[in-house]
């Protein structure tokens, strides 16, 4: 129909202005596109092509508002995009294209909720995104884009889990091990991508994934180091220093470092005990 053709022309004009960086003008045309597609869809709600057109137009408006910093409005439009895309996918569950778009809608909602500080909601959507991306990748493991998206999803999920975990608990294996595993999975996929493509962008992805893993690994030791420093401070200033050093040594020796190889744990403990003894000598 003429109205459908006009909606598509608004869409094209909006995309051109968006590419030129003219965000306000792009917003104007995308709003006109949404208005027409909504009229068309409301008059024929059984049409999947109109539902699809309206869903995509909602996505574009969400992206524009996100770029403009209108996070609440972006959230509204991404929710509408997700709702319609989910309906389309449920009507066509064998469509990998719709599954991929639904995964993308979860990803966008995860980012928005993260920006808004809604960590639990962000985690919920990142988990949904990761679940669908894993299904898509498992059915087509040679697809480079799917592998890249899955690597990103593992990394983002690890980071949000880490942000959600209380700092003082991150030294415990039950909390840090799942996060470190996600980082390792991300590194593995990024390494495979770089080995296949030899692209600098994937090389940077490997370096970024390894950096995030190292940061997470380092964070597991920080609470223990802080505790030791606190104990040392208390021992030095509040109680008899000899008993203090003895108590600190006992705590170090019997500390359950289950997340480290037992041999390495013993070496670390011996090193700490040595440093403790050296410190007592100078004090």
Concise structural overview:
With 283 residues, the chain is mainly α. It is built from twelve helices and no strands. Helices cover 84% and strands 0% of the residues.
What descriptive keywords fit this protein?
283 residues; mainly alpha; elongated
Q: Any chance you could write out the topology, listing elements then pairs?
A:
Elements lengths: L1 H18 L3 H21 L4 H20 L3 H21 L4 H20 L3 H21 L4 H21 L8 H25 L2 H20 L2 H17 L2 H14 L7 H21 L1
Helix pairs in contact: 1-2, 2-3, 3-4, 4-5, 5-6, 6-7, 7-8, 8-9, 10-11, 11-12
Order of helices and strands: HHHHHHHHHHHH
In angstroms, what is the radius of gyration? 26 Å
Estimated helix fraction: over 70%
Shape: elongated
Strand content: under 5%
Q: What kind of sheet is the major sheet?
A: none
What is the number of helical segments per DSSP (H or I, 4+ residues)? 12
Seen as an oligomer or otherwise, the chain set is single chain
Low-confidence stretches: none
Secondary-structure content class: mainly alpha
- Terminal Cα separation, in Å? 88 Å
Overall pLDDT? 83
Q: Care to count the β-strands?
A: 0
């Amino acid at each position: 129909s003429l109205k459908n053709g006009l909606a598509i022309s608004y869409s094209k004009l909006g995309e051109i202005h968006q590419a030129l960086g003219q965000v306000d003008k792009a917003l104007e045309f995308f709003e006109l596109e949404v208005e027409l597609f909504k009229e068309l869809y409301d008059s024929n709600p059984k049409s999947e092509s109109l539902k699809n057109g309206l869903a995509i137009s909602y996505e574009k408006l969400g992206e524009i508002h996100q770029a403009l910093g209108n996070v609440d409005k972006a959230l509204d439009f991404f929710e509408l995009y997700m709702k319609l895309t989910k309906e389309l996918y449920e009507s066509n569950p064998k469509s990998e294209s719709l599954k991929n778009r639904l995964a993308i809608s979860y990803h966008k909602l995860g980012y928005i909720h993260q920006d808004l500080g809604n960590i639990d909601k962000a985690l919920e959507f990142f988990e949904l995104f990761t679940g669908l991306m894993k299904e898509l990748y498992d059915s087509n493991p040679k697809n480079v884009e799917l592998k890249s998206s899955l690597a990103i999803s593992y990394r983002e999920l690890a980071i949000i889990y880490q942000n959600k975990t209380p700092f003082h608990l991150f030294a415990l294996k039950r909390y840090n091990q799942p996060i470190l595993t996600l980082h390792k999975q991300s590194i593995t996929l990024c390494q495979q991508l770089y080995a296949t493509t030899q692209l600098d962008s994937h090389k940077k992805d490997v370096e970024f994934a390894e950096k995030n893993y190292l940061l997470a690994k380092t964070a597991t030791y920080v609470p223990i180091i802080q505790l030791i420093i606190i104990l040392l401070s208390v021992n030095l200033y509040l109680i008899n220093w000899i008993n203090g050093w003895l108590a600190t040594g006992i705590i170090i020796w019997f500390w359950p470092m289950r997340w480290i190889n037992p041999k390495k744990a013993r070496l670390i403990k011996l090193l700490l005990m040595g440093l403790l003894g050296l410190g007592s000598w100078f004090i």
